[in-house]
Give the backbone structure.
Amino acid sequence: MGQEKDFEELKKETMEKEVSEKIFELVEKPKDFVFVKSSNVYHDRYRVNVYSSYQDEGTMSGYKSQRISHSYFCKYDGENLTILSA
């Protein structure tokens, strides 16, 4: 039973990674891109958040922060990624 769970978890992680890679075949990667995170919401639906860096004008530190610059709700059938809403 433990191996079944491990296999399902590995499959889920693999699918999430594929979704993260495929999203940029559909949309342009932002110039200040930091990373993308995909999460399986249910069945074949995914929330894809694209994080970008930005300079907070209210601080004097000069450090850049990160925020979600784009978010997509997608369907992934194992081959094709479709954006359902942005």
Remarks:
- The chain has one domain: 2-85.
- The two ends are 38 Å apart (CA to CA).
- The helical segments are 2-26.
